[in-house]
Structures are given as structure tokens and as C-alpha cells.
Amino acid sequence: MYEVSGKRNISLRGAIIGAVCLVVASFIGGYLFAGSPLTSRTSIPLSQSAGPPPDVDFSPVWKAWAVIDEKFVPASVASSTPIATSTAERNQKRVWGMIEGLAASLDDPYTFFLPPSEAEQFNSDMSGSFEGVGMEIAVRDKILTVVSPLKGTPAERAGIKSGDLILKIDGVSTEGMDVGKAVQRIRGPRGSVVTLVILREGWNAEREIKVTREVINVPIITTTARPDGVYVIAVATFTSTAPDLFRNALRQFVESGYTSLVLDLRGNPGGYLGAAVDMASWFLPLGKVVVTEDYAGHATNVVHRSLGYDVFNKNLKMVILVDRGSASASEILADALHAHGIAKLVGTNTFGKGSVQELVEITPDTALKITVARWVGPDGVHIPQEGIKPDVEVQITEEEAKADKDPQMDKAVEILRAM
Q1: pLDDT by residue (tens digit) across 40-66?
Q2: Of 124, 251, 279, 418, which is most buried by a Cβ count within 10 Å?
Q3: What is the reported pTM?
Q4: Which domain holds residue 257?
Q5: What are the residue boundaries of the PDZ domain, all occurrences included (predicted)?
Q6: Is the dihedral of CA 80, 82, 86, 91 positive or negative?
């Protein structure tokens, strides 16, 4: 049935984070913060003797620092608690705040500073087990936005949808709030409740949704052999373990004897670039372009090519399901297989996470997650901000969702039967 080669080993080869980013981390949290083995092998060279730029006047910074030391008095007793910390701790907190402000000045929702607690949290989040409500978030058009609730999580059960705007978290406005701060507020001990004020397209007014936090164990890969002869592989996120799990899922698909495959990337916010490249390599010949990192002249562009596992022949019929919750690495994989004629896309426009983030260590326990490049597909086109448009657009209404109907899957099956 298939040309199955002996090339079966999958390993994580890239560490650039292609996830929408940051918040994923915690609850899941939001957008994959780029985590520990997160230094990219294509990282832009940094100065070995970092210091103040010669053409920048830093005297206002030090004057402000001195004024704070000499004059600051907390406005209330409650806010004076931090003063009880040591001078060294207070000064360190100021330094972290300065770096946060520096990152915020770029006005890029995917660039931000990870102080010790957030950097540590990201490292644990990339394992696939999280504590929180189970959704990915990002700042889009300066508004905190849900990329996707993860399947089977408290967020999904509470009715949160991709594209929802989060206006308040436990009564605190999210206006001007970055993803990291939002994650900190949404996270909390399991069993506790977080109250979100949500606005959704089609609603006449905002609504309050309460979500009970849990320990989230993400089912990274799930498989279903449908009785109608269609095999479904759903990928929830691109963690470090995803390539091996995907290899096993493909083995099950081959052993099933089926020739029709649905790859379900709906609600998948992304993750490791290397995982997406490895997954694409099962369907593409050696050397075919999967995606290019465009560094806009700051560094040499990097082309990521198929590793050439390429185990399927033309008997394979394939459809990829995407939606507004499909972001970053999901878009890269879907775009690559679509551009090379391997699969048709069904669903709605993807999220439009067309940029590359790198985690740069600032100190041993802090990091700067920074946008360093843009994604370019095999066809030479940047992933658009409005997302990748599917071949066949199919919406799911709230009524259909409540009735457990899936017209997107139905359309995918219909297309496969007609191939």
C-alpha cells in the first residue's frame, strides 16, 4: 500500500519556538514562551562585550533611580510590603522592570522579558503537563485574545472559544496587559476559580465566565480509526515529545490499512519548529522546503528542509483541518503540506502567527523572548497576519458545537471520499 522506508527515528532538531507564544505556558498557558533548550541554532550573534551604546544618554535612567532611592514613600501601608525586602532584592526587581519596559517599547506582542518565576514556569510547561485552565492566549491588535482552548480542559468546558477577547481577569482590566502578566493572573492552584470577562464576535455585550483551575495533562496526539475508512490524527501542540508520538500515530495509520487521512490541527497553538519540520518530513522528499526564516537582513535567512522520511506514495489521500486556533508551527506544517500538493485545507482562516521568536538567556535564570524573523512558506509568501485561507471554508456555529456536530470533519470526509 505505502512505500515505507526504514527511516523511523524522529528527534527534535530545532529549538526556535514557533508558537504563538507566551501565555500558553501556564495554563497551559498561552503562547509558548520559548523555553529552555530554547536557544536557536540559528540565533543571531550577540556582542560578547555588552554595554551601553555610545550614542544613547542613560543619565535620565540613573537620575530616576536616584530619585526613587531618595524620595519614594509607599502610598499605603498595604503597598509598603515590598520595602521589607533587602536593598539587593529591590534593586534586582528594578532591573527586571527596566528590561520589561525595554521589551515593551518595541510594541511587539511576542517580545517580552521572562523574570525567574516565569522562565522556570515555561520550562515545566513544555513538558506537556500544566496547571491552570487550559487555553492559549496572545495579544492581538493590543487586546488579550484567546488563541485556542485545549481539548478536554476547563477552559473548553466553560465555553471559551478561539477568538474570544479577554477584557478582565478577576476584575482587573487587561488593557495594556502583556501575555506574561495575564498568565500570572489566570494561573493559580487547582480547585480555585478565575473569573474572566469575555467579549465574542456576535455577542451584544460582554459576559462573565468562571473557570475552575485544574492540572492540565495535554493529550498531544490522539488517533481515531473511523468506521467509514477515514483515519484521524489530531495534534494538540508541538512539544518536545510530539515527533515521537506522531511517528507512532503514523505507524498505527499504516497498520490500519486505511489510505485516507485527516490531520486535525484545529486549536493547536504551535510549539517547537523542529517538531513541525520532522512531521512534514514523513510526507515530503529529502530537501523539499518546509519553511524559511526571513531575518530581514539582520542575519542570513535559514531554510528548513524535509529530512526525507517520505514514507507515503500517491495512494495517500489527505486533508488538514485548521481554524482560528491553528497557529505558528501548525500553520507551518499545514502550509508546507498544502504548498507541495500533499493535502487540502478545510476549516477557517488560521491565526496568522507569521513571526519567529527566540529565547535569549539574559542571566542564568531569566530570558528575553524576542521576535527575530518572519516565516516564509515554500511558495515564497509570508504567513499573512490574517491567517492562511483554507481551500474549503467551513464554519461551525454555536448551535452545531452544542449539538456535538462537526461540519468541518464532515466536509473533510466528503472530500476524501471524492478523491
Answers
A1: 333 344 554 567 788 899 999 999 999
A2: 279
A3: 0.74
A4: 221-354+374-418
A5: 119-201
A6: negative
